[in-house]
Amino acid sequence: MDLRLHNERPVAQDSLTGEEISSTTIPPSTTNNDTRSPKRNAFTELCSPSKKRTSAKESSTHSGPQTLPALTSFTGRAGLGAYIHAPESFPASRIISYDENFVVANDLFPKSSVHLLLLPRHPEKQLLHPYEALQDIEFLSTIQEEVRKLKLLVAKELQRRFSKFSSKDQEREEAIENALEAGKELDEATLPPGRDWSAEVVAGIHSHPSMSHLHIHILSVDHYNQCMRHRKHYNSFATPFLVGVDEFPMKKEDMKRRFKERFLQQDLVCWRCGRNFGNKFKGLKEHLEEEFEEWKKE
Known about the structure:
By secondary structure, the chain is an alpha+beta fold. About 30% of the residues lie in helices and about 10% in strands. The protein has 10 helices and 6 strands. It has a 6-stranded antiparallel sheet.
């Protein structure tokens, strides 16, 4: 299988820089005999109960990665193939979970405070453009169900990180503490609901993926991360360039198919307040930090 599917140099429709495209995802050791026990972070601990982390040997029913050459080098636009081919070779800080059907990874260049990638391992779908791959209704339904689970996990991680800043969550905690101190039974119907963190998570696919392997982004809405460095970074997630998973299957006449580059060149508009920064990314970047602090307090 020839994984050099696209020119390695970035084109106008790419949401990644050349440096990001060329960065390898190959770990120090990619053999199945790697017995390292990497340190787990809080997010991987949160996610681990949802799926058992399995080895390639245990995934004997899956034909995806095993069909690829053992010595294939996954570089450039094919870099995500390393996750699919040998997820057990990566530390838990990179690969959150995997089974015979999917790999879930932390994005190497996250564009929000929490940013995951869902990688299908289907051997006949993984190298198709999403518009083509997700025309298969049965396959699409499995993607959408997995995305639903991951959005809940991301929401739980947001709650873990930021609940202490949220006025809605603090109001709920205070009500619970007052009830317990008064010796009252907790009545969910009368307690403040707290913040709906699931509403702070989006999931979608870039209309022009920069990487060859099919992947779905699941990320928080804040667009706040040190890896957010360019206009096209921001617009690739804050405009219709990011096509929601629930928008598939897409019609051939859908405008998102036709105006990919135009979305990346749009004015920079704050996702939260709507302020237009034109093409001034530095001004937007500073503003996003301010909005991030306010967003946490909601």
